[in-house]
């Protein structure tokens, strides 16, 4: 994409956020739109596919602090965008009104230059130094990609290995990413010698700008690949294997380095972030590395004490209940919680809760009456009784 096309895009508008949106707001908007327009969810829908590519491109720029800064600087320099490209008339370009050519400003005239010309221009304007390694020469890092998976509670505790199917920009399978038709190869640019840069001297100053012949790539493609049209990147479906570590938390992100969108011009690929959603368990809960469980017990078990059997995720354990245990007490079973890869081991926390029958009759009812008569002189709430007495109740 040429710099002229690049600055004419409204990336904030594509994501539906304001220009002062936070990184979290940008990410939230991207995730929502990407899910709505994902090719897997809209098979055969060309408009949804176009929107998916547009929001992915916008997120690739606005999620990268350096790229976003360059983009914002360009908006401030050239206006707010529009049909003609940031405040310039729609006919502006080579041969446009007054002969004003944005290609002259950005050092490129066609597709594929991306951020190269813009980055160098902004670098010269704002005093950025790179020891000669400009944006055009070092290429453009691939955008990060985020996707979601849902796993069971037990898989989150023990860890799991899952296949992950993605439809996203990836290295073109036809040309292998070099942009040339199979059987041909890009050739070294004879003008810049493969550096992608042309250095010009003006008095005591020297300025580097992207080579116009190769648009800063360093190579020239005479016969572009029919699949990616010379870009080296195409949207395709791929299957990855993601390893979920033991003890992963709900909504936690797992980073797969280099599995995002491929870079351009030899730059590294972005990263893939897998956000994990954990289904709740019908019996167990979680508190950090500890597993939690609420076990119903009889009143007599708390008063007299005894031994109860409690399930764990893998088996079961016997747990001693001391006589006179209060309702709601939490007993700890060491080492039966979540074991993480760093060696930390959680416990099983057992909350005892009295089960109150909805109806009591027969011998049980008679026994309860006798018990009530026996403990009639015992006041279970002396503080409240004293307060009521003070108030004349």
TrEMBL record:
Zinc finger (CR-type): 159-237
Cross-referenced Pfam families: DnaJ (PF00226), DnaJ_C (PF01556), DnaJ_CXXCXGXG (PF00684)
This protein's GO CC annotations: cytoplasm
PROSITE patterns: DNAJ_2, ZF_CR
Cofactor: Zn(2+)
Description of its domains: The J domain is necessary and sufficient to stimulate DnaK ATPase activity. Zinc center 1 plays an important role in the autonomous, DnaK-independent chaperone activity of DnaJ. Zinc center 2 is essential for interaction with DnaK and for DnaJ activity.
Protein name listed in UniProt: Chaperone protein DnaJ
Species, as recorded: Saccharomonospora marina XMU15
């Amino acid at each position: 994409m040429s710099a002229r096309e690049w600055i004419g895009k409204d990336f904030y508008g594509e994501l539906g956020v304001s220009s002062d949106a936070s990184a979290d707001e940008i990410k939230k908007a991207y995730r929502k739109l990407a899910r709505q327009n994902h090719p897997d969810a809209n098979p055969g829908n060309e408009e949804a596919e176009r929107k998916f590519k547009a929001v992915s491109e916008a997120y690739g720029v606005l999620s990268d602090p350096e790229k976003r800064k360059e983009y914002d600087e360009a908006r401030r320099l050239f206006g707010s965008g529009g049909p003609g490209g940031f405040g310039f008339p729609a006919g502006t370009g080579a041969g446009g009104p007054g002969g004003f050519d944005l290609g002259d400003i950005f050092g490129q005239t066609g597709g594929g230059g991306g951020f190269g010309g813009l980055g160098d221009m902004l670098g010269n304007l704002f005093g950025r130094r790179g020891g000669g390694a400009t944006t055009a020469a070092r290429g453009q890092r691939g955008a990060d990609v985020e996707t979601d998976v849902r796993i069971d509670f037990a898989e989150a505790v023990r860890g799991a290995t899952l296949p992950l199917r993605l439809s996203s920009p990836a290295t073109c399978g036809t040309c292998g990413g070099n942009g040339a038709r199979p059987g041909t190869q890009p050739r070294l640019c004879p003008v810049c010698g493969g550096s992608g840069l042309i250095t010009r001297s003006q008095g005591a100053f020297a300025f580097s700008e992207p080579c116009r012949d190769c648009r800063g790539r360093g190579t020239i493609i005479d016969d572009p690949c029919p699949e990616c049209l010379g870009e080296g990147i195409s949207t395709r479906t791929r299957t990855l294997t993601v390893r979920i570590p033991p003890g992963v938390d709900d909504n936690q992100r797992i980073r797969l380095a280099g599995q995002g969108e491929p870079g351009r011009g030899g730059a590294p690929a972005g990263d893939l972030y897998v956000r994990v959603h954990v289904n709740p368990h019908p019996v167990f809960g979680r508190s950090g590395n500890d597993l939690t469980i609420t076990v119903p017990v009889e009143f007599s078990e708390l008063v007299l004490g005894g031994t109860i059997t409690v399930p764990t995720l893998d088996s079961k354990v016997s747990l001693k209940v001391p006589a006179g245990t209060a309702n709601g007490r939490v007993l700890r079973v060491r080492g039966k919680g979540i074991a993480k890869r760093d060696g930390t081991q959680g416990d099983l926390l057992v909350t005892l809760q009295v089960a109150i029958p909805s109806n009591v009759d027969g011998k049980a009812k008679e026994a309860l009456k006798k018990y009530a008569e026996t403990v009639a002189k015992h006041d279970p709430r002396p503080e409240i009784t004293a307060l009521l007495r003070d108030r004349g109740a």
